[in-house]
């Protein structure tokens, strides 16, 4: 019983710091992709093997409860006391010994600039960076620990109960009723002068901006009658959400443009063409996992995780052809996959980009 309770507590704690939700993260990535220079576009395409930045933007949330990645839960936020001035804030954040969203952004930048880092290391760093730049721009991810970033502060929105963190993650954005691409098109309209100002701001100030906003949000909710979110609250704060998402996209692009501005493809790091390095592997699917949030499916061939001989990665558009849960569709069946085999975290994998690459073994 104690083990069950402990597991539930761990799961709850690991879920409460998921920022912006799927739509917000994807919108930030969509905006960033619009502002990449040629070098950054080439690098991102190669490192993500053609996957869009939007599709990669939620990966850090999807893996945070898996095996060795459990340690990454604290990388998504900053816990701070309220009432710090800018000098105190900077000193507190820059001297923290624990991993947090600010210092993880710096670490991922370092890895991406490291000429000795492997492609796998850079790919992982890029996926983390895409996500963490989004996290640090969500105000409730730079807030106080005692209420888990607003997760324990209950409010009413549209006649339903929610919490302050969830309100700013998803509820306010979802009310607009648009996809991430539609939101990116609507939000991404600022002038070059403001873009240059945002691009020149260091990451510590991204966190400071969020801290200032979350401090105001705490004060507002404490004074709110019945803690009911009014239409006036929505109208008042949506411009802030739009600006934070737009800032996240512009600044993410700026980081990638600076890191990869002179990037050139080479025989050692370019993505092989379809005619090169093709592998055809047939084996039994022992287990797998379908991620409803992104539509991605992972299949483990040859043995169950973590002893699989090969992992097959199926993206949403392809997976939809195999039902609502492709992992269950393929479980226990023998399949053949064709594609470029690459290493990811020490394990071989093949990414399925076309339905013709995967079939049931005859």
Automatic annotation (TrEMBL):
<keyword id="KW-0479">Metal-binding</keyword>
<dbReference type="GO" id="GO:0004519">
    <property type="term" value="F:endonuclease activity"/>
</dbReference>
<keyword id="KW-0325">Glycoprotein</keyword>
<dbReference type="GO" id="GO:0046872">
    <property type="term" value="F:metal ion binding"/>
</dbReference>
<keyword id="KW-0255">Endonuclease</keyword>
<keyword id="KW-0378">Hydrolase</keyword>
<dbReference type="InterPro" id="IPR008947">
    <property type="entry name" value="PLipase_C/P1_nuclease_dom_sf"/>
</dbReference>
<dbReference type="GO" id="GO:0003676">
    <property type="term" value="F:nucleic acid binding"/>
</dbReference>
<dbReference type="InterPro" id="IPR003154">
    <property type="entry name" value="S1/P1nuclease"/>
</dbReference>
<keyword id="KW-0540">Nuclease</keyword>
<protein>
    <submittedName>
        <fullName>S1/P1 nuclease</fullName>
    </submittedName>
</protein>
<dbReference type="GO" id="GO:0016788">
    <property type="term" value="F:hydrolase activity, acting on ester bonds"/>
</dbReference>
<keyword id="KW-1015">Disulfide bond</keyword>
<dbReference type="Pfam" id="PF02265">
    <property type="entry name" value="S1-P1_nuclease"/>
</dbReference>
<dbReference type="GO" id="GO:0006308">
    <property type="term" value="P:DNA catabolic process"/>
</dbReference>
